[in-house]
Amino acid sequence: MSVMVLGTASHVGKSTIVAAICRILHRHDRVAAPFKSQNMSLNSWVTEDGGEIGIAQAMQAHAACLKPSIHMNPILLKPKGDQSSQIILLGKPYTDVHAKKYYQLTDNLLEIAVESAKTLLEQFGALVVEGAGGAAEVNLYDRDIANIGLARKLKFPIILVADIERGGVFAQVYGTISLLPDDIRPLVKGVIVNKFRGDPSLFSDGMKILDELTGVPTLGLIPMTDIDIPSEDSLSLSDKKNNNSPIRIAIIKFPRISNFTDYELLERYASVTYVNPGDSLKGYDAIILPGTKNTIEDLQEIQNSGTTEEIIQARAAHIPIVGICGGYQMLCEKIIDSGVESKKGEYKGIGLIPCTTTFSEYQKTTVQVTRRSSGYGPFLQKVSTVSGYEIHMGETDTSGMKEAFSDEGVVSEDGLLIGTYMHGLFTSPEVAGAFVSFLCERKGISWEMPEHLTDPYDALADHVEKHVKIEEIIKFFN
Prior knowledge:
Elements: E1 3-7, H1 14-27, E2 33-35, E3 38-40, E4 44-46, E5 52-54, H2 55-63, E6 75-79, E7 84-89, E8 92-98, H3 99-102, H4 106-124, E9 127-130, H5 148-154, E10 158-163, H6 169-179, E11 188-196, H7 204-214, E12 218-223, E13 248-252, E14 257-258, H8 266-269, E15 271-275, E16 286-289, E17 291-292, H9 295-305, H10 307-316, E18 321-324, H11 326-330, E19 332-337, E20 345-348, E21 353-359, E22 365-372, H12 377-380, E23 385-392, E24 395-397, E25 410-411, E26 417-420, H13 429-443, H14 456-467, H15 470-474
Parallel strand pairs: 1-9, 1-10, 2-9, 3-6, 10-11, 11-12, 13-15, 13-16, 16-18, 18-26, 19-21
Antiparallel strand pairs: 4-5, 6-7, 7-8, 14-17, 19-20, 21-24, 22-23, 25-26
Helix pairs in contact: 1-2, 1-14, 6-7
């Protein structure tokens, strides 16, 4: 057997519940693969064979102690900001499509997703399936391939997750179950109420009321937790809070920011702020230009807002600047697009790196990498070998520049300006710690690396097992 985890809305915690179930099953000597037919996110991961999937499914695979596979997320939508998205199909770029035309493709895409689910079932024997958004989007029932359409194909038992922090949890649960189609409603076998704050005993009557209203057992009430696992999408950016570190790092919050999970470990080591275009960059100890789905459009956004000038001024003031992927491309003198990512033309970059990036074909580099640091400059000399992954269109001509890493990236003569295509650079405790240590030395501040939870999925599983009738969920896999 398998189970399907649906939500009353987006951001209710489906991804973390799936990850927790995957780890709990593993600890009970059961194997189940995570699966999400269609994901929409700019946070992605590269599998060993070079396929691109949503980072949530990679995270869930790690929780299950399995290698991430393209079949765990066969359809990934990467929004471009103009009501269109790039479709990543079975790990590779398929096409860019407007939202209205996307639904013309869903029948075929659903069949592809179901085949991926069957592939995983044959390989692992069971699935923990994650839905998308809210389950009761009645206007999408005839074309929904992540919730209702998939549920009809798989017919797995359903656990519904609700977010009590939002308020209105009774309406969330009762309304969602009531609006489900007649053939899907009986599949709902349990409800989990997530993100509770305060004394759980205060909601004991509420659990009973939910049971009576819906006729579906409430399996648990999970308190809010700050366990360190990667964020799935940009909704998580609003949840971020600065710590009290004297080291302040600015990350430019591009409108189409991608893979900001690269910096979530830094958030534990320093005071990290996601700075909107147009906001001041003064007073920061370092500036990071992150990845983006649309390099040119986001470059124009920061140029029009004045942020480009602030970055140039920071460089003149010897503030360390790191550009990763799209941020690296922006730092170049110019970008030439043949019409692949944006409109055909030549675009002026920020100009801090004397290189040219060219988008010449609709082809994406997706690869896991391990590289040695060049050791050049005060930060890179603290770093030895680094691992990460590349996800990008376009190529950058770096002739004449010093390499930041073996066969990749650039570093300035003073070592304070770095450009690289390597995502995941700062997810390593050693690299993130070296960066913050370097910044502390510049300010004459002593710093010790905090304890790092090497495997947060055990902590997540402990947390969920403590508050959920886990034996009822394990029954679905007997």
